[in-house]
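Progress report, Aim 2. The chain analyzed during this reporting quarter is listed below.
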Amino acid sequence: TGEDKRSVTREGHTLFCDELKRGESITLMFNAYPKTMKEKEIKVADVRISYTQLGQRLDEVEEIKAKLDNSVWFRYKDAEKRASSANWMFYVGLILAIIAGVSLFIQWWGKGKREKEKDEIKRNWHKNLEDISKKLELAKDNPTEMESLKRKVERDIKSIKIK
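Predicted structure tokens for the chain:
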């Protein structure tokens, strides 16, 4: 570190360096290629550190792993899930819009039908009242016609069912 660079030599897959001072470190950087992108973590290397401290030879083995959580594969899968969810929500929204449109059409159609029925009832009622009015005019001086008209009105009243 700093201006005092240590000499590092390599023999095959083994690296050697001079004595390190207290607090100094060596950083090894290399590329690791996973066999499959679907793994979240891979074992990159086994590092064996051998050193001498106070005349005693010490060995330590360290397994180095790399996390692939943010690899292209997992980003692709996350994007695929979001797209699938968005597509699903689009189709649900489309179905709801169709249902709403159909129900509005049914209500509009039913309202039109009810309006036609009301108009038909009003026309019939108006026609009956005009008919009664004409017959009343004719029956002014005829008690038999007046009685016949009275029975017809009573029959019509009984035939009308009110809910």
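The beta strands are 8-11, 14-17, 41-53, 56-67. The longest helix spans residues 72-138. These observations will guide the mutagenesis work planned for the next reporting period.
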